[in-house]
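hi! just following up on the protien thing from before. the input was this:
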Amino acid sequence: MNGASLPQLVLFDFDDVLARYSHQARIAHLAQGCGVAGERVSQVLFESGLESDYDGGLIDTATYLDRLGAGLGAPVDEALWIASRVAGSSVDPAVVALAQAVAAQARVGILTNNGALLAEACRTLLAPLFPVLEGAVLCSGALCMRKPDAAIFRRALAHFDTAPGQALFLDDKPANVAGARAVGLHAECVADAASLGAALRRHGFALQPDPGAHAIGAGIG
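and the predicted 3d structure came back as:
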């Protein structure tokens, strides 16, 4: 940051920043668990708008799971949903190592456009980052607002009691990065361990060299 002080807070996006996400793998797992075709899961979960409603906070978790189960003709509880979400995500150890290095130097959190249950899936997917992330996974479904709306960034800053200029936001979508910058956060667009490491170094974080050198490919972004 050209001699400026280190950010006090680093907010990571989840999908395609901390973890690679695959619709196909998630759908296949849920289809197997419910004994239905993948096409049916896709229709009920995504084409119907159910997932979008949950991600936007228009319905709560109980209603979401009830409607999902009714549509699939089989009960879907939190455990099955989380297991399917975990099956559809894969984490690069190099990315986790970077986040751990940052957590030793600043406060860290997650700001993601996902329903509230994603916070529970993070406990499995990002186990090495807990308990640091305890109470620090902010989901759009719980906040009832989405990136790139300015309000969600302000809500996140208030949650962490941090001024915009003291926070760094990292996302894979340019629109979300632009939204964060409009509120006054430092923000970078990243796509993998290498670009994440480079962005963190630009903002003054001390990291091990070549964080992406041993990255493992995973998922469909």
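The chain has a mean pLDDT of 93.
The two ends are 29 Å apart (CA to CA).
cheers
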